[in-house]
Every structure is written in C-alpha cells, then in structure tokens.
Design a protein that fits this description.
This is Anti-sigma factor antagonist. By secondary structure, the chain is α/β, with parallel strands linked by helices. The protein has helices at 26-36, 56-71, 83-91, 104-109; strands spanning 2-7, 13-21, 43-54, 75-79, 99-101. A five-stranded mixed sheet has the order 1-2-3-4-5. α1 packs parallel to α2 (56-71).
Length: 114
C-alpha cells in the first residue's frame, strides 16, 4: 500500500491511498490519519480511487478517523471509492454515517454526497 498526503492552501488535506487496505498495512493509514487529524478543526479528504481491496481493519481506520475529526470540530470525507468499495460501505451501513463523494473535488467543497 502507498499513502500520500497533500496539503491545500485552505488547510484541507487530501490523503490518497493506493493498493490494499487490510490487516497487513492498515496501521499505515491509521498513523497517517493520526498525523493529519492532530490539528484544530481538521478537514481531510481520503481519496479511495486506488483501493483494490479493503477489509474490516481498513474500514475501522476510516471510522476512527471520521470520529476523531468530528470530535476536533472538523470532518473526514471519503472520495471516489471503486464500485467494490462503494458496495462494501453500503453493505456494512457506513454510507449514512460517513460522507462519500464521487470525486476529490466534490469532497473538498462538500457537494453531491452519495
């Protein structure tokens, strides 16, 4: 798995993940989210377009990140999940709780949530 972080001029952050988000490397995402969420009112978009597989460890990292962002007065939004990941998020009941957007741009401005 590869994770990259890009900060924007408006203090929002885009975390891009490529590969498998599973028990073998879920701590990489958790560690990255811990770092970007360690600021007042964090605004984080997680770009999921490169995720090939996600298990419960990956889902847990996203939920914990979402909760931590909300507790800090900010948000964590998910962007561009594959068809597989979109169905997984629906199946386990996370789409009503986590904001999911079709594109990173939509997630940054908070429009057209799925």
């Amino acid at each position: 798995m590869h994770v990259s972080v890009v900060g924007n001029a408006d203090d929002s952050v885009v975390v891009t993940i490529r590969g498998n988000l599973d028990i073998d490397n879920g701590t990489t995402l958790t560690t990255t989210l811990d770092q970007v969420l360690d600021r007042p009112a964090p605004r984080v978009v997680v770009d999921l377009s490169g995720i090939e597989f996600c298990d419960s460890t990956g889902l847990s990292a996203l939920i914990v990140g979402h909760n931590r962002a909300a507790e800090g007065g900010g948000w964590l939004r998910l962007a561009a999940p594959s068809e597989f990941l979109g169905r997984l998020l629906d199946t386990v009941g996370l789409t009503p709780r986590l904001a999911v957007y079709q594109t990173v741009g939509d997630a940054l401005v908070g429009r057209d949530a799925d």
